[in-house]
Amino acid sequence: MVDIENAYKQCEKVIKHHSKTFYKAFSLLPEKKKKAVWAVYAFCRIVDDIVDEDSSPHKELALFEEDFHLFLNGTIPQGEYHFMWLALHDVSIHYNLQKDAFLDMITGQRMDLVKTRYNTTDEVLTYSYHVASSVGLMLLPILAPQKIEALREGAISLGLGMQLTNILRDIGDDLGRNRIYLPKELMDYYQYSEEDLRSGLVNSSFVKMWEHLANEAELYYQKALETMNEYPLSSRTPVKASALLYGEILTKIRKKQYKVFNEKQYVSNEEKTIILSKISG
């Protein structure tokens, strides 16, 4: 039987393995909040992996959603993900978790099972809200319980910026899963075809298209940073760090001449440390 401390440790392992950027940023939180963030992240990572890695994702996602509804009704589901449900239950005792944000995440992951192309930027932003902005909304009751409404738009903007960054970084990986998140209207506008994309062509059209979305992402980061002072001091630095560290991925891709087809660009530990040292509460 998993005890609560081991449940949190397993959640921490999930985030430490899958997102070193998030782990670095949110390790700055006080212990209680930090562990709560680990549990929420584990929920998000597990549902994402079901869609991307499971051999029968439709069935497993449906079962996962059933377990979530059991969880909402006070039952801690057993099985492979028991540790996450146990930790999340403990979080729910201390924080007023927003169930709609969790359901939005599940909805967003389901989109990946039925949709592999996006025609418009608005469609991409709707998807991004569900798979990324929902995370910010999940975390607000933990990070800023007295300021949820004041920070809602900023949290949504931060999620949009991060997901657009993911899309721009993971173009090659996504192609390997037959997914293209770059909106067709943008590809058409810059005269860059799906054939060009599949051949890994980095030309002036690709760079202009990439920069178009990157500039949008940076505007969302900027909007998120405008409300950063509304966070309690203990949460402000980690959230600001996550925005700046994630935004730096775009800078790294530019420095690497837009190599996003066969390489995955990361911000190094040394670069992260330099950025964190410059952040003041």
Automatic annotation (TrEMBL):
GO terms for biological process: carotenoid biosynthetic process. Pfam families: SQS_PSY. Keywords: Carotenoid biosynthesis, Transferase. SUPFAM superfamilies: Terpenoid synthases. Pathway: Carotenoid biosynthesis. InterPro entries: Isoprenoid_synthase_dom_sf, Squ/phyt_synthse, Squalene/phytoene_synthase_CS, Trans_IPPS_bact-type, Trans_IPPS_HH. One of its GO terms (molecular function) is geranylgeranyl diphosphate synthase activity. The keyword Disulfide bond does not apply. The keyword Transferase applies. This is Phytoene/squalene synthase family protein. It comes from Metabacillus litoralis.
